[in-house]
Amino acid sequence: MSDAHPNGPTDAGDAGADAQHATTKVILISIVAAIGGFLFGFDTSVINGAVKAITDQFGLGSALSGFAVSCALLGAAVGAWFAGRIADRFGRKSVMVLGGVLFAVSAVGSAFAFAVWDLILWRVVGGVGVGVASVIAPTYIAEVAPAYIRGRLGSLQQLAITVGIFAALLSDAFIANTAGGAAEITWLGWEAWRWMFVVGVVPSLVWAFLALQVPESPRYLIAQGETQKASDVLRQILGAVSPASIQRKVTEIRTSMKRETEPSLRDLRGPRFGLLPIVWVGILLSVFQQAVGINVIFYYSTTLWQAVGFDESQSLTTSVITSVTNVVVTFVAIATVDRIGRKPLLTIGSMGMVVSLAFMAISFSQSVGSGTDVSLPQPWGTIGIIAANLYVISFGATWGPVVWVLLGEMFPGKIRAAGLAVAAAAQWLANFAISTSFPALADLGLQFAYGLYCIIAVLSLIFVRKAVQETKGRELEDMGEPAGAKA
Ligand code: BGC
């Protein structure tokens, strides 16, 4: 696939410079939207460094302490569910501002929590922000990006999520080390864990502020009948194209967004099990992305490695290495998603996950000892770590970014925000189910947990081959038509 500007310059002279300027602009505004991804990663992981101190300070049992972690995921399902509707009603920008404000409120509220119920409340508020961000960033990016770089720009969301996870880990470690422990009293007489939350205020407000500066999505403007404003935005983001091309684009978008009634979740209804087939594909992409167990690595890695005999510092180091690997491999997706396409990447990723998960399950089945005195004899300890990192590589270069890219672009215009909202809500519920069931599965034996995730990875491969359609290089206005229907 060539990298040339798809709409072609009209006037040779300044056309190259105009196209370049437009591309830079699209990249910058996509980066602003992707800050939502940073907050999504940061907010879901920041609790990791704080949970032990909170459990001790509020005297929590394991169920309540687990719920203090996972309640944010339920909030995220609610946020994702409503974000689509709010985005269709009040615009994409307003939703980004709302997300930023929710994050900031949750950061301050959690930092000042005086009891567990009040901490849970603020975590749910932050979770709603996470859900909102998970829907609005891919929607906005897909709607401003030209087809030829849409996959790369969409992958910025995952890059931001992974950097957010890493930043939270690093910031937690820095604060805990400076204070001498997450429970220790430090600056202003607060416990260190309170600072872990409150630092999130800065990126939250930065996001809300920058979201006010970016242009509104041209697709939303056209759906609102604001054709002139939409043409102005299209001119900025498409660069050197003729007025006639802009007009053609506006007409195409108008046709694809045309509707007789207000957008609603009813639009997703269809003949098969109550929903349109494309909506089922979105939901299943989301569910598979979670059901292969990726967040067990990110939420429980320290416990996981300790459970097979690593000491605390080895486990922490392993977790940090994994989170850096997760950031780095996102660049593989950025480099390849618009060239080799979404479907081949998902296929390769599923295959890699099947193999690495199988090796993890086999390694864990070799552990010896019982209770707190367990260990993985060599070479299984090393094989386990290598397999876990290969698993993160297989996920992080493929299913992690590609699912968000696809969810942003695969739905036809009329149902884009609603379809993404439902699929993202399903993703958060699946995340909740997998993360809350893991401790019980791990009690049965880690090999069973990883054996199950391996079987799910096999199913994900079959699903991709049978149900997912390639979207590489296709215009957003052609989604929902059979591939190649419009050359
Ligand atoms: C998923 C998150 C996950 C992250 C890991 C994202 O695509 O949606 O649930 O924590 O990838 O990098």
Overall pLDDT level: 88
State the major sheet: 2 strands, antiparallel
* Ligand inventory: beta-D-glucopyranose
In quaternary terms, these chains amount to single chain
As a percent range, the share of strand residues is under 5%
Q: Total helix count?
A: 18
Low-pLDDT stretches: 1-10, 482-487
Computed Rg? 23 Å
What spatial order of strands do you see in the largest sheet? 2-3
Shape: globular
N-C termini distance: 15 Å
Helix fraction by DSSP (H/I, runs of at least 4): over 70%
The count of strands amounts to 3
Structural class: mainly alpha
N to C succession of SSEs: HHHHHHHHHHHEHHHHEEHHH
Output the keywords:
disordered N terminus; two-stranded antiparallel sheet; globular; 3 strands; disordered C terminus; 2% strand; 18 helices; 487 residues; binds beta-D-glucopyranose; mainly alpha
Task: Outline the structure in words.
- The chain is mainly α and 487 residues long.
- 52% of the residues are buried.
- The protein has helices spanning 12-45, 47-57, 62-90, 92-111, 116-144, 150-179, 192-198, 201-213, 218-223, 227-238, 243-257, 277-291, 294-307, 312-336, 342-365, 380-409, 416-444, 446-467, and strands spanning 269-272, 368-370, 373-375.
- Helix 6 runs antiparallel to helix 14 (312-336) and helix 15 (342-365) runs antiparallel to helix 16 (380-409).
- Strands 2-3 form a two-stranded antiparallel sheet.
- Mean pLDDT is 88; it is low at 1-10 and 482-487.
- Strand 2 and strand 3 (373-375) form a beta hairpin.
- The chain is built from 18 helices and three strands.
- The two termini are 15 Å apart.
- Beta-D-glucopyranose binds at residues 158, 161-162, 294-295, 298, 326, 396, 400, 404, 431.
